[in-house]
């Protein structure tokens, strides 16, 4: 696929890295900063164009004439929308994705239609990250909670502890513990290695367990793996930028929220935006301020600034001063490995959160959602099965009849409003949303092929 | 330095290169006017050499780093220069020494076109074809070819590509994927070659000569199958065809690509380098033709025009075909032509020399200094096609320019120390460093008569010229080898 990416910032570069790695894609990236482009050019096999991404001649130079997709990821909503508009009217680019940050634009869904502003898909990394953290605060025991089929099914990752009743037993015993709850273990990672989760497999303490269940069953299953943490009441957010502000607005109804913001102007603005949250002006790495605001009674401390190092250090400080759980936004993949085993409970990689949503549009076959897991090495996919028994490789077959590549499991199916947890004899019907789990991302093209409809369908 | 990875790629490239010895075998079997053995032996030696390098390290599949790229390219050109000389050395006609064989091979691969073989007209067809063929392969760059056909080089391919592509700005890819870019370049190159062969053939060359000369024309090489070079045909149509294709091949291939893709000639007129390139050649042609006329060197005006134009384009693009003994032309003309060859072709073309864009930048920078004297506070950007260039590029151009002249001065001194006269030394170094071919004085017709030491120095000059000096020079810096 011929893809043009506008903006080589944090999101743009990660998306480019991820996409250029797949052989089928030809990537051209446009940015105003030549230095960033040269660095990317050295590292990746892609083409770079220096200039303003919304100018027609720059788009033309970037090969908009025969591009299949335009992904506008600059930090300006307006440039992104304009670029999509131009790509649509001058170059007839089939798929246009724009990063829209400001919720003001998102309020009216009629705005983004082929007749007005031709943006096919909007992504807002900030909202995605906000939702992601929100899920984590809802389920304090989980490492990761991801939505499928509009939230009907969720995938949760949890670290198993001795305190969980299932730990030390085979997976199949879960049925005796919870006869009326259906769940499926999608993968188990032990010391960084994936283990095939058969029914006989014994869950050990320290394992990272990924399981899929209907939304309402998630807390129950979590409790099987470890003693549930007390529900969260008090949250402190360090950094009141886009993510911090949105998250505070989302959380303040159900939790006691404090936001620490360094800049007076932004702090003032935040205090106007938020109702019951307390906005504090100051430095999140100032121990006096943290103690003053009773950090020791905080259930969660979230470091959400743009600066990796500041996030890591302020989280570590908060942990030392007594915060029960600390989370930190970390952009650099190398840092994530470094800190997650130690002092920081959950490292959140904004790119991994964002990239999944983009990948869903790039995958062939009808793929609705893609979630990158374990820093991109594994992937969970929601794909829709189409066709009938003759044209599709999945429809009309039971799960054991489908030839899945190794390391790929079908975990659940959503049929209309019904959530079906996959068993070996479950039949797949047309228009089912099938949720698959890949422990090896390299198998992605085989899975795509599986869900492509044969020619007879047309 | 990942020496094993480098060895693996080197082995693979040699295996690929060995296949270039097959067409001459076919030619030999068809014409049967020489011996097939030199090519068979060379083929086996190259293939076995490549496999011997490749097999022990075939599992070393790591990405190439920047430094590895330089080493691969330089090693490859040197190793290829040596292996490419095998057929010349093994052949009985001509009976060449090792020095001569390697000189001939490097001259071919670097598209220089300086020859040590006298009596080309009596040589077997297979050998003649082989000379043209290696010139053709060297033109677009055999590594660019390898990048096109071997996807496994991946991003490491970009490092190789950059080290081999001429010009100061090498990040302009035609397509997002490096392999696709390399393929596009080779398609254009192949297209030009086919068109050129057909044109020669229609104009009256034999099929063998047409293909052979198309190879060396499009490669901006200058090897011919006759001692008298293009002069052998004595055909105005052929000379004009050669002029057109030399001009086309001296243009940046990225512009050809843009023109073909968008089916318009606009990219040519929009490119300042192209305009400068045409202007320089036009002005020098006018001067040359007028001077030839004034001195009545040729009896007819038409002959002055055709021969003057042909010779200016041939030397100016660094091809090196001759239709007249230009080295005995009157007054300043021979030296003027050698000077023009320093300017050479456009960046990203098959031509040699310093490249038009660098000269253009130097001139513009000179103009900027003058303006600065008048307006000391002025902020003046050096622009190419309305786009200001980063200072980094300008600095690199100055560095290149200085290195180019330092190296040529040093080599002229070395050649004079070996016993050659000033005119011969100067023109031989210019002809080799610019990948031009024929020089003046003793090397006006061929390089057979000069001593072995001078030939080795000139071999180095040809490699330096083809790899644009820095790629090769960087290997001689201690920093390159430090861990």
Summarize the structure.
The complex is a heterodimer of chains A (458) and B (483). Chain A is an alpha/beta fold.
How many helical elements of chain B?
Answer: 23
- Biggest sheet overview of chain A: 6 strands, parallel
Principal-axes shape call of chain B: globular
| Helix proportion of chain B | 55-70%
Order of strands, main sheet of chain B, comes to: 1-2
Portion of residues within helices of chain A: 25-40%
Provide a count of the helices of chain A: 15
Number of extended strands of chain A:
22
Measure the end-to-end span of chain B: 8 Å
Q: Specify the CATH architecture of the largest domain in chain A.
A: 3-Layer(aba) Sandwich
Give the CATH H-level superfamily of the largest domain in chain A. Answer: NAD(P)-binding Rossmann-like Domain
Please give a structural write-up.
The complex is a heterodimer of chains A (about 450) and B (about 475). With about 450 residues, chain A is an alpha/beta fold. Chain A folds into four domains: about 1-125, Rossmann fold, CATH 3.40.50.720; about 130-225, Alpha-Beta Plaits, CATH 3.30.70.1450; about 245-350, 3-Layer(aba) Sandwich (Rossmann fold); about 355-455, 2-Layer Sandwich (Alpha-Beta Plaits), CATH 3.30.70. Helices cover about 30% and strands about 25% of the residues of chain A. In chain B, α4 crosses α9. Chain B has a two-stranded antiparallel sheet with strand order 1-2. Chain B has helices at about 5-20, 20-30, 35-55, 65-85, 85-90, 100-110, 125-140, 140-150, 155-165, 180-205, 205-220, 235-250, 255-260, 265-270, 270-295, 300-315, 335-345, 355-375, 390-415, 420-435, 450-465, 470-475, 480, and strands at about 385, 385-390. The N and C termini of chain B lie close together (about 10 Å). With about 475 residues, chain B is mainly α.
